[in-house]
Write the structure tokens for this entry.
Amino acid sequence: MNFSRPRFTSAACAVIVLATVVAGVSGVTATAHLGKASVSTRPSKHYSIEQFLDTEGVVGASFSYDARQILFSSNRTGIFNAYAQPVAGGEPTAITKSTTDAVFAVSFFPTDDRVLITRDQAGNELNHVYVIERDGAEKDLTPGEQLTASFTSWASDGKAFHLRTNERDPRFFDVYRYDATSYTRTLLYRNDSPAYYPAGVSRDGKWVPLIKTNTWNDSDIYLWSAETKEARHLTPHEGVASYEIAEFDPAGKHLYYRTNEGSEFMRLKRYALASGKHQEVEKARWDILFTNFSLNAKYRVTGYNEDGRETIKVLDTASGKPIPMPDLRGRSVSASLAPLPEDRYVGVTFSRDETVMAYYVNDARSPSNLYVQKLGTHATKRLTDTLSKHIDPTDLVDSEVVRFKSFDGLEIPNVLYKPHQATATAKAPALVWVHGGPMAQTTRSYRAVFQYLANHGYVVLGINSRGSSGYGKTFVMADDQKHGKEPLLDCVEAKKYLAGLPYVDPERIGIIGDSYGGYVVLAALTYHPDVFAVGVDIFGVSNWLRTLESMPAWWNREGAYQEVGDPTKQRDMLVAISPLFHAENIRKPVIVVQGANDSRVVKAESDDIVAAVKKNGVPVEYIVFDDEGHGFRKKTNQIAAYGAILKFLDTHLKRDRRAPQ
């Protein structure tokens, strides 16, 4: 299970999410053709998982001090490393060459070519922050055992930066200021409460905003002053409301933040540091995800979650007018990419001199590619070409947003991937895919495993059952302490929806999920044993008592108890919704995949459920990766996992279940 958004990152933190490092936000909204039964000539071929994962994953972007290079992370070698790419184009240079642990780039130094990176050890999520010197030498800035650290911000003059670490006490994150030349550090903010998380530092170093998480759906902002050493409560409120930090403006006059107080969706506000006044800045039909400024506030970029698709708007702050983005629709940007049906810009970053911006463009059929654009012009250059050269993009499928009414009339949004070869005369097997979280969201993104399954003839329905983020405060709270019940019934209704599609074989529908989604898979096989034909459990929770009691010290346990249940006060309820204690009901084939170093869903969760299912005489397969944690970062392990899953599905689901044996 993936408590991938721990309590300190967000008031609306999601607990059990697969860390997908190779994902964009994409897709199209269309449902009109779903009932058509035309014969398709696609796909022209079936691709192996090795060919799908030959696609390169690229994430992050940081400009060098002179805007001639851009820093990002890539798994082109099979594991993530840091690379520097010339902005003018050409081949990237490897900054790190790890073969064992995934490395993620953080930032170029503002005045030279040194680099900050972060990595853990074999997926244990105990991240350290390192500096890579100009000669390639590496220095651990956060040495020690059993600590986790992260980068927060640069000082405006580039002479210092700030890191967060829980080295003093695993329950508390402190903030240190590091000299950018000597790396000597001083304690800026000492945290003495597990409820508070330092969400950043103002560029002048005078303020540390703190998020106080009350529950996963309710939080507050406090502002700590480096001068007075006191924290001011900025957001007293009644009822349930989330408050999350956006950013300080570069002038140091305002703290921008997001909140859903008094509304369903997150909107943007700001707090004036001098006067203490709050001001509405922007609201949208959907959640506002973030807002960021360029170094001197010439530009501001804001992101939005539009029905599972991230969109962005870049404003010229002087005029208040949006910066036009290049139109990539209708033209192929390289021989290996089909034309994008709709432009999807994410991850905008500005150079320090505010002359160039970088961003990613992606689509359901196109993994993220990194672009740079000279501001004030439409001059755009693509720096990466990530789709596997083995794959014809016209063999891939678009994603579609579809909705159905659940058992109680609640509308459930989903993202559907329909294989080209699925027709009314060639009905396909199907899978309900349950995301992690539970407060995560299946988005309209490029997902290699979704495309892999669709290419091999499986319909994939990525369900956003009640409790998913992105659809309003009421929707996200609708699963609180109802796990194994109403959200699971949404999945049962999803099976009925799939069974009603003319190109789906109603007898061949399975359920698959990762992390919290893996729990739902086990719950479906346990509490509704005749609904799904098979189950695929990717590091899912089987015993809530153990999972909740083994949470790391820095997680907000009270928030988890509010969401799922309190193991000291609601033990009977948690036993009732834990599949392990009722595994005798499981009678459909299941495959379980687990990382040995998983700190969120510990290996015992999978060990125990596999042993219990074996007692039933039910076909069960079990795969464990000794060098992975929560989410599989190494391509070799992804190939092994997804290849085994497809083989399992072909054996137990794809074959004609009505044929004589």
